[in-house]
Automatic annotation (TrEMBL):
GO terms for cellular component: plasma membrane. This is histidine kinase. It is an enzyme of class 2 (transferase). SUPFAM superfamilies: ATPase domain of HSP90 chaperone/DNA topoisomerase II/histidine kinase, Homodimeric domain of signal transducing histidine kinase. PROSITE patterns: HIS_KIN, PROKAR_LIPOPROTEIN. It is found in: Cell membrane. Keywords: Coiled coil, Kinase, Membrane, Phosphoprotein, Transferase, Transmembrane, Transmembrane helix, Two-component regulatory system. The keyword Glycoprotein does not apply. It catalyses: ATP + protein L-histidine = ADP + protein N-phospho-L-histidine.
């Protein structure tokens, strides 16, 4: 209580006034009255201190109750309410907590309803797509049995490619919707970065070979962070796919990771033409597609099937784990742009 400057000042002023009154009384009535006047001043100060201490205890109790609410308690203790301005404050806080609880419950119900609706939508969409996939496979076998149907087979292959694009687009949109709704359940476990990078790169191995692009992985031993391995691998896969699609044949995509006292840092770079200055502020925007790289004369390769979802989804998945991601242009020693660079950081909790 005495650490409060206002209380200390008030106590000093009270004692100073008591001393001044004692001196005046001693001057007027004699020095024999001085001890009695000082005693009376001190006695007058004691009830004030007791009342102040009682109010501080009430404020401390109210502070503990508010702290409990902030840490998940859904009720504010109103059992010790009395008359006075503190009781009014406590009553208003109770009303606020009750209202916040109702709002939180409504949001939880809406999120659950949205999650259920997304699950239904996913099921309803995937069912006809699965049937279409089976049908195209049967048609392929029928054409193969007939022979000499190269044109039909090529058309069928094109249909299958479009079908795969639709499936991937639907899956990505559903994941984005779940992420926006807060219905995506993310784990909070230790993640081995080397294993996570392997999970992200494995689905793209054939695509890297076909595109004649090398994938280089340089991860420090024991590098890890607290998060969700599967969803982080999903985010990294989208970044690797984006880098691959914008790197010319014979190029390289590099994944580096190291851990320091503050964070686990993952860097992805490619040897493409880089990101145009006009596109840099927008690379993580949903459905945004930059037209060319930083150097149009190098013939930047833009994926015609991309719709601008991958990097947005990657950013959402990383920030949902309290991580950060930034995009920039990689440069060589002379300062020339040699490709895009994505920096990811998962910060450690400071105890």
């Amino acid at each position: 209580m005495l650490r409060n400057r206002e209380v200390t000042r008030a106590l000093i002023v009270s004692l100073a006034l008591a001393a001044a009154c004692a001196l005046v009384t001693a001057t007027c009535c004699g020095s024999e009255t001085l001890p009695w006047v000082l005693l009376a001043g001190a006695a007058a100060t004691v009830p004030w201190l007791a009342l102040t201490r009682q109010r501080y205890r009430a404020l401390a109790r109210l502070s503990r109750n508010i702290d409990a609410v902030l840490h998940g308690d859904r009720a504010l203790d109103l059992g010790s309410m009395n008359e006075g301005e503190l009781a009014i404050l406590q009553s208003e806080l109770g009303k606020m907590v009750s209202r916040l609880n109702l709002t939180a419950e409504e949001l939880a119900r809406e999120k659950q309803m949205l999650a259920d609706a997304l699950a239904d939508i996913s099921h309803q969409i995937k069912t006809p797509l699965t049937s279409l996939s089976i049908t195209t496979e049967l048609v392929r076998k029928s054409l193969a049995a007939r022979g000499n149907c190269s044109d039909e087979v090529e058309r069928l292959r094109r249909i299958e490619e479009l079908q795969l694009r639709v499936e991937n687009l639907v899956s990505a949109l559903l994941r984005l919707a779940r992420l926006d709704a807060g219905a995506l359940s993310l784990a909070h476990d230790p993640v081995d970065v080397a294993g996570m990078v392997h999970d992200a790169a494995q689905p793209l191995a054939i695509a890297f070979d076909i595109a004649d692009i090398s994938l280089v992985v340089d991860v420090d031993e024991g590098c890890s962070f607290i998060g969700d391995r599967a969803w982080t691998a999903e985010a990294l896969e989208n970044i690797l796919k984006n880098c691959m699609e914008h790197t010319p044949a014979g190029g390289t995509v590099t994944v580096e990771a190291h851990e320091d006292a503050l964070a686990c840092r993952i860097r992805v770079t490619d040897t493409g033409p880089g990101i145009a200055d006009a596109d840099l502020p927008h690379v993580f925007e949903r459905f945004y597609r930059g037209g060319r790289g930083a150097d149009e004369e190098q013939g930047s390769k833009v994926n015609p099937s991309g719709v601008g979802i991958g990097l947005s989804l990657a950013q959402g998945l990383i920030t949902a784990q309290d991580g950060t991601i930034a995009a920039s242009n990689a440069r060589d020693a002379s300062g020339a742009i040699i490709g895009a660079r994505f920096d990811i950081a998962f910060f450690k909790a400071i105890v």
